[in-house]
Design brief:
- The protein has 322 residues and is α/β, with parallel strands linked by helices.
- The protein is built from 10 helices and 17 strands.
- A hairpin with a 2-residue loop joins strand 8 and strand 9.
- It is globular.
- Bound molecules: flavin-adenine dinucleotide.
- Belongs to the ETF alpha-subunit/FixB family.
- Pfam families: ETF, ETF_alpha.
- InterPro entries: DHS-like_NAD/FAD-binding_dom, ETF_a/b_N, ETF_a/FixB, ETF_asu_C, Rossmann-like_a/b/a_fold.
Amino acid sequence: MKDKIVILGEYQQDKLASITLECISAAKQLQREADIILLIMGDDIKKDESEWHQYDVDQIVIVEHPLLSRFLNETYAKALLSVWDQLKPTILLCGHTDIGRSLSPYLSEKWDLPLYSNIESFDFHDGKLSFNRPVYSGKLIEKIEVNNDSAFLVTIKPKKWSASQRKEKSNPSIYNLKVTIDQPITALIGLEQKKADVIGLVDAKIIVGAGRGIQNEEGFALINKLAEILGGTVGVSRGAVELGICDASIQLGQTGKTVAPDVYIACGISGAIQHLVGVTSAKTIIAINKDPNAPIFEVADYGIVGDLFDIIPALIKEWDKT
Ligand code: FAD
């Protein structure tokens, strides 16, 4: 019987999130012979069939239920238990995102299956599959050999695979699956929209990073202005979060988001390893720091040594003209 890889799709603003398209690429690399099934859960899902028929997978399985209208660990996990019984996949693949990180340990324990988390590449050697993942804040890469006989769960690190392109001739079969979800003991009372552009952050082409060097609201306003005139968005270090003026949801690094923009401008950020692990996939890094020995300059393509309160207003003045 053919292997089945089920990809847990993430759906944001009526569109598949880029991490899900990255999961499709990873699934293709993982086992070419397997059936790749894209699972989309929600309620009243907007189906753009012409677009969906171009996703490069074998099947799309849609699970709709009123309790799945918003992500809640308990309801999604219960729905997935029911999906697992019906689809019997060999591999469950999802992003190492808030959703993937929240669901996968629970499911691994429930199904008594191994979980390989935060994987950034695969190797095949003598017919054996092994996974590579960063450990100790990215200082080492751990290689884990997979037991081929067992089903397993895997979460992949964002931005390590390119997003799967849509193909006109792909034409996956699309069908609905019914699930039963026991009455949950948790309920979502409401959602408060934060001002921070968290969704845009992961896919942004230009990110201006704010560190502890911004010092205060005035410094943060400069960062926001710079991002605005460049058509980019703002990410922050933990140092900036600790100042109490930036939202932790836009923190970049080991305990924050991993990004891979075309340009990352790190302002008043020292370049601690825990921060760098989330930003060094940027194509170009520009650092602004008053300390010429700051470690950020070791990874930067361009560096400006100086006070950001002098440099950023000058950049804004210059670039605002264009
Ligand atoms: P600092 O290290 O204080 O650096 C501030 C920099 O600003 C300095 O280099 C200084 O020269 C410069 N500066 C000051 N004033 C100016 C000015 N006027 N103009 C120009 N430059 C100026 N950190 C993260 O960012 N993300 C994470 O996900 C993360 N996870 C962590 C997980 C663990 C388990 C641990 C232990 C730590 C983690 N950290 C994380 C914290 C990390 O180790 C650093 O403490 C943090 O990144 C420092 O932030 P910073 O560079 O903004 O501040």
